[in-house]
């Protein structure tokens, strides 16, 4: 495995500092967790059962958390489907399977209202209770450019809020919200994860994976992932529904 | 009932606009909900079962929601006690019953890490799913000056985040996070609520109320409330444990 010197800007202030890592069980957050471990943090992994269609990603998250040294993995139950407003949580809305989102399209129907803000807020609560100062967030602005809460200015704003919202933020102004893959392309993420030892066959990106975690191959998320492996010139290890 | 002309800065852009109101069942948020109704919004009330000791406040919240015209009242289950770090959710920590917090003390042990950020984030998700633009938040900076997430600069920062995090925020920059009682004293809140028809005997502020909603009379929150009625020169209608 190569070193991760290119990620030293995300290094812990002290060896083994705790860090809360948002872990969906998908390709992006698995790569971030591998990076966090490699950088020398003590990872605490946080996942959500929020009413998503594709809960097999949580089984994937558990395996990945164990593999990359998370000392604890919490799965929070938080039913966002009662609010509606997204094809990911509302079974009455149809998932898009046409071509992937491009930068100047509108926000896609798979966007879940305020989901990333809610998840980051819970990560902030755990971070503070752990007396930690670091959160890692696998948002990506390139592939999902239509999602408002995957942009660098959003992450910066959340970090600013975090330093006003918490004891450690107010007293020391040291809370950091890291989004280390936010400006990477999918193929760059795949190349990075591969270098860090991520087994992508264990990750679930599909919006409508079955209970075994097998992917549909046609949804927007599957198509982005397929293109990523093609662009990275790596074999796609994803297990598809037959 | 007097008019609420003094609150016109919080008025809806259009009559009957929907607004999400965080409603704990305590004195402060009951007053805010009464104000929201009086201003002409269509209120959507949001409460949380977050592992707090005093869940009888949720029964109070339901009654108050109905009384002040909430068209829907959602109670979200979100177990923050698993993270620990607060005397409100951690049964291993003792609640303070000595004198109340003053501006220059440290953050009190009853502070729940990131609780307000998590609650506001959920309100933001519901707001966006409702195609609304307004959130009401009963934070108060005067009595709870030791809580970082009850200060005006915190609320401003959350509003800034909300306009980066959501579809409506990015497209129209119109999300408003109102904290109409944030700079009021407890006695001013009580006077306002009384004018607006709030029956404070139905509200529960006590950190360790019993299952009937009867207050202990000795915790920090009870003491602040007692002092508020005394300062307002109004009879305290709170029902105490005998």
Explained architecture:
Two copies of one chain form a homodimer. By secondary structure, chain A is an alpha/beta fold. Chain A contains seven helices and five strands, in the order βαβαβαβααβαα. The first copy, chain A, has a five-stranded parallel sheet, with helices on both faces. In chain A, strand 1 (18-22), helix 1 and strand 2 form a beta-alpha-beta unit. The longest helix of chain A is centred in the middle third of the chain and has 15 residues, at 115-129. The model of chain A is unreliable at 98-105 (pLDDT under 50). At the A-B interface, strand 3, helix 3, helix 4 and helix 5 of A face strand 3, helix 3, helix 4 and helix 5 of B.
Layout of secondary structure:
The structure is a homodimer of 242-residue chains.
Chain A (H helix, E strand, L loop, with lengths): L17 E5 L4 H13 L2 E8 L6 H12 L4 E6 L37 H15 L4 E3 L15 H14 L1 H6 L3 E3 L7 H10 L24 H13 L10
Parallel strand pairs in A: 1-2, 1-4, 2-3, 4-5
Shape of chain A: globular
Mean of pLDDT of chain A: 87
Question: Which consecutive residue ranges of chain A, at least 5 long each, have pLDDT under 50?
Answer: 98-105
Instruction: Report the total helices of chain A.
Output: 7
The number of domains of chain A: 1
Task: Quote the distance from N terminus to C terminus of chain A.
Answer: 34 Å
Annotation keywords:
Rossmann fold; 5 strands; 34% helix; globular
Task: Give a brief description.
The first copy, chain A, is built from 7 helices and 5 strands; from the N terminus they run βαβαβαβααβαα. Chain A has 242 residues and is an alpha/beta fold. Chain A has one domain: 3-Layer(aba) Sandwich (Rossmann fold), CATH 3.40.50.
């Amino acid at each position: 495995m190569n070193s991760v010197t290119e990620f030293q800007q995300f290094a812990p202030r002290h060896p083994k500092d705790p860090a809360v890592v948002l872990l969906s069980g998908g390709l992006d957050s698995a790569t971030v967790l591998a990076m966090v471990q490699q950088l020398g943090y003590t990872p605490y992994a946080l996942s959500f059962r929020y009413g998503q269609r594709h809960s097999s990603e949580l089984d994937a998250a558990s395996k990945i958390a164990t593999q990359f040294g998370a000392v604890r993995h919490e799965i929070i139950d938080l039913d966002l489907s009662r609010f509606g407003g997204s094809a990911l949580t509302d079974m009455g809305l149809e998932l898009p399977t046409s071509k992937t989102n491009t930068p100047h399209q509108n926000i896609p129907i798979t966007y879940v209202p305020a989901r990333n803000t809610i998840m980051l807020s819970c990560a902030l609560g755990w971070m503070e209770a752990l007396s930690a100062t670091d959160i890692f967030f696998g948002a990506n602005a390139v592939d999902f450019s239509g999602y408002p809460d995957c942009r660098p200015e959003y992450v910066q704003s959340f970090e600013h809020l975090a330093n006003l919202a918490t004891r450690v933020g107010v007293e020391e102004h040291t809370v950091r919200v890291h989004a280390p893959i936010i400006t990477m392309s999918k193929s760059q993420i795949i190349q990075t994860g591969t270098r860090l030892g991520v087994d992508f066959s264990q990750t679930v990106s599909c919006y409508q994976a079955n209970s075994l975690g097998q992917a549909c191959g046609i949804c927007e998320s599957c198509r982005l992932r397929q293109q990523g492996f093609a662009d990275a010139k790596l074999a796609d290890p994803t297990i598809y529904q037959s």
